[in-house]
Amino acid sequence: MGRINTNVQSLIAQRVLGQNQQSLSSSLQRLSTGLRINSGKDDPAGLIASNNLGAEIASKNAAVANANRADQVVNIAAGGLSEVSGLLTQLQGLITATSSSAGISDAERSANQLQIDSILQTVDRISTSTSFQGIKLLNGNFDFKTSGVASGVADYKINAAKFAGSANVDVLVTGSAQQGGMFLSFGTASIDTGTGSQFTVEVGGASGSRQLTFSSSTSLTNIAAAINSFTSITGVNAAVSGTGIKLNSTDFGSANYVSLRVVNAGNIASSGQEGVYDLQSNDTNLAATTKRSTFAGVNNTITNKGKDMQATINGVAAITNGKTARINTDFLDVEATLTTGQSQTLGAVGTHAFSIIGGGATFTLAGNVDIAGKVSIGIQSVGTTALGNAVVGYLSQLSSGQSSNVITGSTENAQKIVGAAIEQISSLSGRLGAFQSNTVGATIRSLGVAVENATAAQSIIRDADFAAETAGLTRSQILVSASTNVLGLANQAPQSVLQLLG
User: Fold this and answer.
1) Which helix (H) or strand (E) holds 19?
2) CA 57 → CA 289, 347, 366, 449, distances in Å?
3) Dihedral, 332, 424, 144, 343 alpha carbons, nearest 10
């Protein structure tokens, strides 16, 4: 070959040198950045996967931060509840100490009332002052807001709910709530036990029992009054109905009952309608037509239990206790207590029992911002006007001048109110504790594992393998050096052709 116009060998050497220099540059970039993928040309699909994983890791790390923040918020709320719980325990002691009618002076009673007033003020102060970054936690700020409460709903509580916009709560009664009860038929307006004999019965209920003795000619009205004088001990009410007495448990549900044992039936007739009857299952205002037993036959205790209402809430079978129904699902944790009439009426409770239109403490505990990744918990007010219930009353009624103060009011009812308040605080504390342990704690642990796995996957896709890149760098350096030498030789080759010119 004697051509000098085109140095093909030089062109080849230049091309190979350029390729080797590019490979050397790529190795140097990967080693200096620590990344295998520095731009889309390195690995287009890998870059997309790496970016997606990076966004996922960032959102999961933010969710972990949210979970830790939620834990701190609940910690502060739980601290306030602990103080309120201690104050309520003090209230119980003060009420018991003041309930004696003898052995305590008016000055002591007034001093105890002053302490009670001070405790109530402190409870209200804790309710309004417990906060996180200025956001009040225990004043009902994070309770759920509702509208359209049906008249058949006596009380309700929303513990947790997840919804977009608003959510309707629909309650359907499928089984009637009942009291325990039975009917005692005597056939006359007063009992006739015969000469020298008495009628002795033991009446019992969920709270206890009491034995009562009645002489001949005692009116049914007086018998009912005697039974009712021990209602707080037995949990049983009595009412005259025609020529008999109807016994009912004071509360509804399977935990409540009426028991009867006839210690001495006297000489009360048993051949006619006299005796013990159950109440009709579909109408407890009426006695069954079949006699259960004569009075003389009830020498062993017989019992009639109440029934819990059966219901569904939003299509989910509810757990029921008396007139109260509750469901606890991922999207709704709610309980509703119905009025007596509504709990015994099969069918829907209003168009809706009520609607949830907002509120609750909501936290995003997942990488995706959607309803599935959110958790919401209701924190009810612990102020004195909210602790208690509509049946026994509220804690504010224990203050001076109110119906359950310890100077002129009912200390028995005051203790019931404080008992209901303690139960509320205990329930709320338990729910917050379960939220911290089972929801927040589990979320932090699971998200931590997810972040680790996603980071490992991203590292495999995008990070440089230093061992391989170091070997590649050495190879590229040698090839660049060799290519440079070869290019020099290729450029010198045409000079030998000049010798042909002499």
Assistant:
1) helix 8-33
2) 73, 50, 11, 11
3) 60
Which of these CATH numbers, 2.60.40, 1.10.10, 3.40.50, 3.30.750, describes 179-305?
2.60.40
Domain boundaries, the chain: 8-34+464-501, 179-305
For residues 365 and 330, what is the distance between their CA atoms, to the nearest angstrom? 14
Q: Are strands 153-161 and 347-348 parallel, antiparallel or unpaired?
A: unpaired
Q: Say yes or no to pLDDT of 485 above 90.
A: no
Residue 376, pLDDT score? 82
pLDDT in tens, 378-389: 888 999 999 988
Say what the pLDDT of residue 230 is. 94
Long-range contacts for 207-214 (Cβ within 8 Å, ≥24 apart)?
A: 207/232, 207/233, 207/234, 207/235, 208/233, 208/234, 208/235, 209/234, 209/259, 210/234, 211/263, 213/264
pLDDT of residue 374: 78
Can you say whether residue 114 is alpha, beta or left, with left for phi > 0 and alpha for psi between -120 and 50 degrees? alpha
Of 158, 115, 475, the residue nearest 332 (C-alpha): 158
* Max Cα–Cα distance, the chain, nearest Å: 166
Q: What is the dihedral of CA 232, 233, 235, 238, to 10 degrees?
A: -80
Which residue in 381, 397, 383 sits closest to 123, CA to CA? 383
Average pLDDT over residues 397-406: 89
Cα separation, 382 vs 88, in Å, equals 11
**For the segment 136-155, what is each residue's pLDDT rounded down to a tens digit?**
999 888 889 999 999 999 98
High-pLDDT (> 70) share of the chain, %: 94
**Contact residues for 35 (Cβ-Cβ < 8 A; gap 6+):** 462, 463, 464
Integer Cα distance of 388 and 355 in angstroms: 23
- pLDDT bin (cut points 50, 70, 90) of residue 370 is low
Euclidean distance between CA atoms 53 and 65, whole angstroms: 18
Six-digit token string for 43: 């690995």
CA distance 230 to 228: 5
Burial label, 285 (beta-carbon count in 10 A; 0-12, 13-18, 19+) = exposed
Sign of CA dihedral 275, 276, 279, 284: positive
In this predicted structure, the answer to whether residue 502 has a pLDDT above a threshold of 60 is no
| Nearest Cα residue to 147 out of 165, 168, 132 | 168
Question: What is each CA distance from 119 to 44, 90, 111, 362, 443, in whole angstroms?
Answer: 69, 8, 12, 31, 38
Nearest to 21 by CA among 465, 467, 482, 491: 482
Kindly report the average pLDDT of the chain as a whole number. Answer: 86
The tally of CA atoms less than 13 A away on the side-chain side of residue 304 is 26
